[in-house]
Design a protein that fits this description.
With 174 residues, the protein is mainly α. It has one domain.
């Protein structure tokens, strides 16, 4: 019976590692791994991942001033530095879990502690992204932030930002 519990635990941890890797890949892509082009090709970069404020159409539509662009540039650099650190911590935590799972003698308590560290690192990464979002919201104010969000949602409505949004949906930045 104990052998079954150990096997079930190992399979559960492997599954969680795989799901965590998939989740990490999605987080990485959503947090700016894609580059921003003039026609806002990637959804992740439109909302808060890339330098959407540098797009002339977006800047004009939202009345982004040069001072605001500079502020957004600075926020972006600080956010990216923080996200790099968060991603490194995630990778280290994942490696630690793998080492524990692959060891000859499984220590369930250590494995669960390592999993908690990994989970905490994902929470920290999400918190950093949200802090950036809050700063952008404070800078833009309610109406311009809603306009940005509306444009992003419209843009994404055609299948993850592969085009310029569905026609006839009153997309504000088309």
């Amino acid at each position: 019976m104990k052998r079954f519990i150990v096997l079930a635990t190992i399979l559960t941890m492997i599954t969680l590692l795989l799901l965590g890797g998939i989740s990490f890949a999605k987080v990485s892509k959503a947090n700016g791994s894609d580059k921003m082009s003039g026609d806002m090709k990637t959804g992740g970069s439109m909302m808060m991942g890339g330098k959407w404020w540098q797009n002339p159409d977006v800047a004009k539509k939202l009345n982004i001033t040069n001072v605001e662009k500079t502020t957004l540039d600075n926020l972006y650099v600080e956010k990216m530095k923080s996200m790099i650190d968060c991603k490194a911590n995630l990778q280290k935590d994942m490696l630690g879990m793998q080492e524990l799972l692959e060891s000859d003698n499984l220590d369930e308590a250590k494995a669960m502690a390592a999993f908690k560290e990994y989970h905490d690192a994902t929470d920290a990464m999400s918190a950093e992204h949200f802090k950036y979002l809050l700063e952008v919201r404070k800078l833009l104010g309610a109406s311009r932030f809603k306009e940005l969000k509306s444009s992003y949602n419209c843009f994404m409505s055609d299948g993850m930002g592969k085009g310029k949004g569905k026609k006839g949906m009153n997309c504000p930045m088309q």
